[in-house]
Design brief:
13 helices; 16-stranded mixed β-sheet; alpha+beta
């Protein structure tokens, strides 16, 4: 066979050698120096052969044969090592190189940053986990350009230390196959991606040198120990431990891990950037660390900029999940309370409502007790985690009792889910009367809401803005939506019938989330609005991406922690948002009661204490492979910057409209603010910084008249019930439809009554 052309091979080799250098595994200097001066393919191959881990040959049918190369297969535990691959392609077939390491984590795919185990429906996965010790991926594109020979780079990550065996095998994916390649039977003409049928693998005997256990000394500003989110990255932006090699409580979909004071991460020698945070009430603190002989601990000092609890406001996320969505491919189980409490503590939340829903209902419902719990943050399955190499011991902290879980229910994946996903908070019984299976539950929501309220539960709607985007940022707007998704749908029926207490959001565009709420408030209802995350479904960053702060006379602790928090929501001060801005002690003429009575309309002074924090300059665009700070339309104080500076706009809202505003410097300082405004009629009053924070309203009834602020709002609600029935009635069972129609009619009649009572258009 003729020798490959030297110039293309040399260009390929130089690219690969430069990538090895950039990945931190440079070839010896003398090799690099000699490479550029070589003029024949034989010389290039002879120089690089000692550094090639595997050689791949491609035959005329795009079949592949993989053989061991000459490079010593040495790895490092919990670290990456990169090698050359040489590809011989004498028939000059173009395609993309893919690969696998059967029985382990071998995803050799330039598109993939992780290759987690898809856990089956039982916890009896120890043998499979134990074998999954190696992760591999192509560091180059993997595209074969049609050269007779070329070089690529493979990176390998070892979970374990010592001697281990693995087989690497490659295939070739080919688009628009030439006629010489066999077309599978039944294939249609056009663009086609074909994987080669042969993949003879190379068995390699790896040896991995051990890494070091690094104890993390996580400290609050006052010196107290606590749980926090810790992110470890190397110079190439790779997270440690490898995201693909994680098992609960460490999640493959996080860059960070949650660690308490005294717990460990395992790192090979090298240079790292380690950052620590504990939710949005803290600035991220970052330090550079060199791990070397003698390194056994790293101190991480948290940087808190605001402490709502010191002012009597306690945070909660009313919508998180322990199973489903990002947790597992087959989400029938999920993680235990011991893992969920670690995540809630690590984000600095006082309360996390863990909602059992359709895909994980039958497994997760075992954790429901009707009480709040604060379990130790243990490793939930010792055998599985030992098989994964997680031998570190969980540690208690000084702040553990400041976080609690309460298991409740989200009616999602149930027959009524089409009408909007219902959240039931504070249940005493999680099984709807007369049901044995999810499929037995009602096919519309009102009966479920009434059942929940009969138990004293707070009832509402999740991810309220989904499907309610009207194509405008106007608030309020009067576009009747099609109700085609799972946001606040049937709430417009349930609220006038006294059976829905809240909607929850702070996840998508404010106009989509707040419009229904504003209209309901405008016709006199006291519907609450909460911030939630829907972790890890809408957001998998961690609990508390959206959160709710409730003012209480004492911290919510013990078995009735959630009930105390809900009582505060029902009658006291609260606000919701992303936790990067805060509005404390909203008051009108120094009265902070939610319900106020006045002899007549007139001038008032609205006051509050406001704090917000942003870095002095906007962050740069995220690096490739790094997540942006939020979803494209989510709530985040970054989007509130005025003119790219550090100021944000605080608005006074009366009956849904911003009637006054002032700029607030987002430097973390608490500032007293005041607005003088004339209330012309009975009104609701709130403060907001969009898209970051919004208070619950204060309701002012003047001259003995109820709040009836907008005929247009009443008409919008009435007309929306018609649109809702058109969209949803076909999903309601025939034997329930008459009752549902009667409820819809009753809601519309109430809206018409309120329309007649409204003072203004």
């Amino acid at each position: 066979m003729p020798e490959p052309a030297a110039q293309p091979l040399l260009a390929s080799a130089i690219r690969a050698v430069h990538q090895l250098r950039d990945l931190g595994d440079p070839l010896p200097a003398e090799v690099t120096a000699r490479l550029a001066g070589l003029t024949s393919a034989a010389e290039i191959d002879a120089l690089l052969r000692p550094h090639v881990l595997v050689e791949v040959s491609v035959d005329e049918h795009a079949g592949t044969l993989t053989r061991p190369g000459a490079a010593p297969p040495r790895l490092v535990q919990h670290g990456w090592t990169s090698f050359l691959i040489r590809v011989a392609n004498p028939h000059r077939i173009e395609g993309r190189l893919n690969g696998s390491t059967p029985g382990v984590y071998g995803v050799i795919d330039h598109h993939s940053h992780s290759a987690r185990i898809a856990l089956p429906d039982t916890v009896d996965s120890v043998p499979r986990i134990e074998k999954a010790w190696l992760q591999t991926r192509l560091a180059t594109s993997g595209e074969l350009s049609g050269l007779e020979a070329e070089y690529h780079v493979i990176s390998a990550y070892s979970r374990d230390a010592g001697a281990r065996s693995a087989r690497l095998a490659f295939t070739l994916a080919v688009e628009d196959r030439p006629p010489s390649l066999t077309r599978p039977a039944g294939n249609q003409a056009g663009v086609h991606m074909m994987m080669s049928a042969t993949e003879y693998g190379a068995t390699l005997e790896f040896d991995s040198r051990p890494a070091r256990e690094i104890r993390l000394d996580v400290r609050e500003p006052d010196g107290a120990s606590s749980m926090a989110a810790v992110t470890v990255r190397d110079a190439h932006g790779r997270s440690y431990p490898s995201t693909a090699m994680r098992l609960a409580p460490d999640m493959f979909f996080h860059e960070h891990v949650y660690r308490a004071t005294g717990e460990v991460v395992v790192l090979p020698d090298g240079e790292y950037e380690i950052s620590v945070r504990r939710g949005p009430e803290y600035r991220e603190a970052t330090r550079d660390v060199r791990v070397e002989p003698g390194t056994d601990a790293v101190e991480l000092r948290l940087d808190r900029w605001v402490d709502p609890a010191a002012r009597g406001y306690y945070s909660g996320d009313p919508h998180i999940h322990a199973g489903g969505c990002s947790h597992y491919n087959v989400p029938s189980e999920g993680v235990t309370p011991e893992t969920m409490i670690r995540h809630v503590r690590g984000e600095g939340l006082w309360l996390g409502s863990v909602l059992t829903w359709g895909p994980c209902y039958y497994h997760q419902k075992q954790f429901f007790s009707g009480e709040s719990i604060s379990p130790p943050a243990l490793l939930e399955n010792e055998a599985m985690q030992q098989a994964q190499g997680m031998t570190w011991s969980p540690r208690p902290t000084d702040r553990d009792d400041e976080s609690a879980l309460r298991y409740d229910v989200e009616v999602s994946g149930f027959p009524s889910s089409h009408s909007g996903h219902v959240i039931l908070l504070g249940l005493t019984d999680q099984d709807y009367p007369g049901t044995r299976l999810i499929e037995d539950w009602p096919s519309w929501n009102l009966p479920i809401m009434r059942w929940g309220q009969a138990q004293g539960a707070l009832t509402g709607y999740a991810h309220c803005g989904l499907g309610l985007d009207a194509g405008t940022d106007e608030l309020p707007n009067h576009v009747v939506p099609r109700f085609q998704s799972i946001g606040s749908n049937e709430i417009i029926v349930d609220v006038p019938l006294g059976s829905a207490d809240f909607q929850a959001g702070a996840e998508v565009a404010p106009a989509a989330e707040l419009n229904v709420w504003y209209h309901l408030l405008n016709v006199g209802y006291r519907t609450l609005m909460l911030g939630e995350t829907d972790y890890p479904c809408i957001y998998d960053d961690g609990p508390g991406v959206g959160r709710t702060y409730v003012r209480l006379p004492s911290p919510p602790r013990g078995p009735k922690a959630l009930e105390a928090w809900l009582d505060g929501l029902r009658g006291g001060a609260s606000y919701f948002g992303d936790g990067r801005s805060h509005v404390f002690d909203l008051a009108i003429d120094r009265d902070d009661a939610r319900e106020q009575r006045r002899a007549s309309p007139g001038p008032v002074r609205v006051t509050a204490t406001v704090a917000a924090w942003l870095p002095e300059t906007p962050p740069p665009p995220p690096e490739p492979g790094r997540p942006a700070y939020s979803a494209p339309v989510g709530w985040h104080l970054e989007r509130a910057r005025v003119g790219g500076g550090r100021e944000v706009l605080l608005e006074l809202v009366v009956n849904g409209y911003a009637v006054a505003s002032q700029r607030v410097l987002a430097d973390g300082a608490e500032r007293e603010v005041a607005f003088d405004v004339t209330l012309e009629r009975s009104s609701w009053v709130a403060l907001r910084i969009l898209p970051s924070v919004h208070t619950q309203p204060i309701f002012v009834e003047a001259g003995g008249r109820p709040i009836r602020a907008s005929k247009r709002s009443a008409q919008w609600l009435h007309d929306s019930v018609d649109a809702l029935w058109t969209a949803k009635s076909g999903f309601i069972r025939p034997d329930e439809r008459d009752e549902a129609r009667a409820a819809y009619d009753q809601a519309q009649a109430i809206y018409l009554e309120r329309l007649d009572e409204c003072e203004v258009d």
